[in-house]
Specification:
Blueprint: H1 6-17, E1 28-29, H2 71-85, E2 90-91, E3 96-101, E4 107-111, E5 114-118, E6 121-123, E7 145-147, E8 162-166, H3 170-179, E9 184-189, E10 195-196, H4 202-217, E11 231-232, H5 235-242, E12 248-250, E13 254-256, E14 259-261, E15 267-269, E16 272-275, E17 300-301, E18 304-305, E19 308-313, H6 322-340
Parallel strand pairs: 1-2, 6-19, 7-16, 8-9, 8-16, 9-12, 10-11
Antiparallel strand pairs: 3-4, 4-5, 13-14, 14-15, 17-18, 18-19
Helix pairs in contact: 1-6
Bound molecules: flavin-adenine dinucleotide (FAD).
Keywords: Oxidoreductase
Organism: Geodermatophilus ruber
GO molecular function, one term: flavin adenine dinucleotide binding
Length: about 350
């Protein structure tokens, strides 16, 4: 198992439940120094109230916590308790640098703390370590600061500045709302945002996930689940919209030394450009396996890679949400038990 976020911990829990011995039957290698997956790195103002919902891990509910508690505190505490409760064999900090095929149908796993051999690999490395920033003309000329949400620590550092926020997702909207309280902001997105006035219902959620699942079945890049759900209008978003903070401009054509410019002559001076433009799956260590097809993505059948049933990707594509990751962990464990122990009783 590679990665101890929501997806990795869920898979580890189910592997143990299905009879794989923690420590000898499976181990979890995690690059972070502490429990918490990507949540431990999220900006301090991202409180539980401002997330969509952090789904329970299997077998231990998320303990009640105040709405104002930062996720970067609450989720790592929960994951740490979870690892202890189920005695999960997490080794950290251990960064996997390459996974290669071994002659016997298994794998060599090269890591910062030595090498491992494995009969199967469950990859649960998320996206946080691969922030995505698109290329735009003039990026190298811009004299101000360019940053991604992974670098964001709070609005205070932008006080009195002019900040351009790029991106049509939930992070862009949230950070705009905060930064606009202390700075002048401009919001640019490639497409007009799709606002979802009603709370997100399960049926719409399933439809959104199905779109991403189709993409990975066909070997296309997955995109993000959140990207196809639209932007939920919470009371907080409505207030920002009423203040005019969420009036959006189309994407600029280039950056200049001191701002961003459109071909029609428009120009906005900027001290900082915040690229809230998403993430890609952190799969570089799997490159030696050459899993990517001509569509640029990895063809998947459930959580297994097509043609490589001993490699499972959890928290990837349609399972890139806390609920999806929890379910994918179970699916991968069940499949691996079937594959590696075909005579076992699967009623558990
Ligand atoms: P992660 O939590 O990223 O964990 C991956 C783990 O893998 C990390 O511990 C990392 O150290 C480890 N790792 C990475 N590379 C290596 C390597 N090479 N070797 C060893 N270990 C490695 N989802 C929701 O359901 N609700 C929300 O409200 C929500 N809010 C979000 C807000 C933001 C700002 C973002 C970015 C995402 C949000 N999501 C939300 C998505 C959700 O956080 C993830 O889909 C979910 O947590 C699944 O996590 P994961 O286990 O796949 O990955």
């Amino acid at each position: 198992m590679i990665g101890a976020g929501q997806a990795g911990l869920s898979a580890a829990h189910h592997l143990a439940r299905l009879g794989f011995a923690p420590g000898s039957g499976f181990v979890v290698l995690d690059a972070d120094a502490r429990p918490g997956g990507a949540w431990q790195h999220r900006w301090p103002s991202l409180t539980l109230a401002r997330t969509h919902h952090v789904h329970d891990l299997p077998g231990l509910p998320f303990p009640p916590a105040g709405d104002d508690v930062p996720v970067a505190d609450a989720v790592p505490a929960y994951f740490a308790a979870y690892e202890r409760r189920f005695a999960l064999p997490v080794h950290r900090p251990v960064r996997v640098t390459a996974v290669r095929r071994a002659g016997d149908g298994g794998f060599f796993v090269e890591a910062s703390a030595g090498d491992w051999t494995a009969r199967a690999v469950v990859n649960a490395t998320g996206t946080w370590t691969r922030p995505f920033v698109p290329r735009y003309p003039g990026q190298e000329l811009f004299a101000g600061r360019q940053l991604h949400p992974v670098d964001y620590r709070g609005a205070a550092e932008f006080a009195g500045q002019s900040v351009v926020v790029v991106g049509g997702g939930a992070s862009a909207v949230q950070l705009l709302g905060e930064i606009a309280e202390v700075a002048t902001t401009t919001w640019v997105t490639r497409r007009p945002p799709v606002w979802r006035e009603e709370p997100f219902d399960p049926e719409a959620g399933r439809a959104a996930v199905a779109l991403v699942a189709d993409a990975v079945r066909e070997g296309r890049s997955p995109g993000s689940v959140v990207g196809v759900t639209g932007l939920v209008v919470t009371p907080w978003v409505r207030a920002a919209r009423d203040r005019g903070v969420l009036d959006r401009l189309p994407m600029f054509d280039r950056l200049t030394r001191d701002g961003v410019a459109w071909d029609d002559g428009r120009f906005v001076r900027a001290d900082a450009v915040l690229w809230a433009t998403g993430f890609r799956a952190a799969l570089g260590h799997l490159a030696p396996l050459q899993l990517r097809g001509p569509g640029g993505g990895i063809r998947m059948d459930g959580t297994a890679v097509v043609g490589e049933p001993r490699v499972h990707l959890v928290g990837y594509g349609p399972s890139a949400s806390t609920v999806g990751a929890s379910r994918a962990g179970r699916a991968a464990a069940v499949e691996l038990r079937r594959l590696l122990h075909p005579d076992a009783d699967l009623s558990r």
